[in-house]
């Protein structure tokens, strides 16, 4: 059909739709988390061969009339929601060629072949290999990679914020910088031989007096 963009939410207005085939398009983004409200009475849902990403929404389990659900050949991540296994009318189910992880749910009235889950390295359990150390390690590495990405993003953002703050302090607020440098210069006393300042002035040990004197000199210039 040549469709591009995100999932078309306008389908909600097609209240009598029973079959929705959006396969082999260029749809992207996430599958709506409230998809059951958009396709209340749909029997067949085919979103295969697109570019959908993110998690499979557990709300699909509320599409109680579904007989066929195809989500294969996308970029979906995370586990297969166990709630989907409660779809008692489901006869055709395919999530192959995604990036799914975790155990394959046990459907209450159907079983699906290994081809329905193919090319998802993180999936395990019948009809695939039993979940073991290999798959646990894969899932842990996936979680760790996401946390590392988050940490890197946080550090990068904080660094940029700090640099921006320093830039504003030194370049965006020249008056404040000048005043602080002047106060520091005027109030810093370098005692020579125990009782002499660099300018030969009498040293006053009261910091309040020095700061007041500095402000007076600043605004008198």
Q: Tell me, what's the shape?
A: globular
What is the makeup of the main sheet? 6 strands, parallel
Q: What is the first-to-last residue Cα distance?
A: 76 Å
Q: Could you name the CATH topology of the largest domain?
A: Leucine-rich repeat, LRR (right-handed beta-alpha superhelix)
Poorly predicted runs: 141-146, 189-203, 207-215
Question: Number of helical segments?
Answer: 4
Radius of gyration: 33 Å
Give the tally of β-strands. 10
CATH class of the largest domain: Alpha Beta
Question: Number of folding domains?
Answer: 3
Portion of residues within helices? 25-40%
Order of strands, main sheet, comes to 1-3-5-7-9-10
Question: Into which percentage range does the β-strand content fall?
Answer: 15-25%
What is the architecture of the largest domain at the second tier of CATH? Alpha-Beta Horseshoe
- Overall mean pLDDT: 78
Order of helices and strands: EEEHEEEEEEEHHH
- Structural class comes to alpha/beta
CATH superfamily caption of the largest domain? Ribonuclease Inhibitor
Structure report:
This protein has about 220 residues and is an alpha/beta fold. It has 3 domains: about 5-130, Leucine-rich repeat, LRR (right-handed beta-alpha superhelix) (Alpha-Beta Horseshoe), CATH 3.80.10.10; about 130-170; about 175-220, no CATH class. About 35% of the residues lie in helices and about 15% in strands. The protein is built from 4 helices and 10 strands; from the N terminus they run E-E-E-H-E-E-E-E-E-E-E-H-H-H. A 6-stranded parallel β-sheet has the order 1-3-5-7-9-10, with helices on one face. It has a 4-stranded parallel β-sheet with strand order 2-4-6-8, with no helix packed on it. It is globular, with a radius of gyration of 33 Å. The N and C termini lie far apart (about 75 Å). Residues about 140-145, about 190-205 and about 205-215 have low confidence and may be disordered. It is a single-pass membrane protein. One of its GO terms (cellular component) is membrane. It is found in: Membrane. Pfam families: LRR_1 (PF00560).
């Amino acid at each position: 059909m040549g469709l591009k963009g995100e999932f078309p939410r306008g389908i909600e207005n097609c209240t009598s739709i029973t079959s929705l085939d959006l396969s082999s398009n260029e749809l992207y983004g996430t599958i709506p988390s409230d998809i059951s409200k958009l396709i209340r009475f749909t029997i067949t849902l085919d979103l295969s061969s697109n570019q959908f990403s993110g998690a499979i929404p557990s709300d699909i389990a509320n599409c109680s009339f579904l007989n066929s659900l195809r989500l294969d050949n996308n970029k979906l991540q995370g586990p297969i929601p166990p709630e989907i296994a409660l779809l008692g009318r489901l006869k055709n189910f395919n999530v192959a060629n995604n990036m799914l992880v975790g155990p394959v749910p046990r459907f209450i009235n159907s079983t699906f072949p290994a081809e329905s889950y193919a090319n998802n390295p993180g999936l395990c359990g019948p009809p695939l290999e039993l979940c073991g150390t290999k798959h646990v390690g894969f899932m842990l590495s996936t979680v760790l990679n996401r946390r590392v990405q988050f940490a890197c993003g946080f550090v990068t953002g904080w660094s940029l914020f700090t640099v921006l703050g320093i830039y504003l302090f030194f370049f965006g607020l020249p008056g404040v910088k000048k005043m602080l440098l002047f106060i520091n210069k005027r109030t810093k006393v370098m005692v020579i031989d125990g009782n002499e300042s660099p300018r030969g002035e009498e040293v006053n040990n009261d910091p309040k007096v020095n700061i007041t004197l500095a402000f007076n000199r600043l605004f008198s210039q």
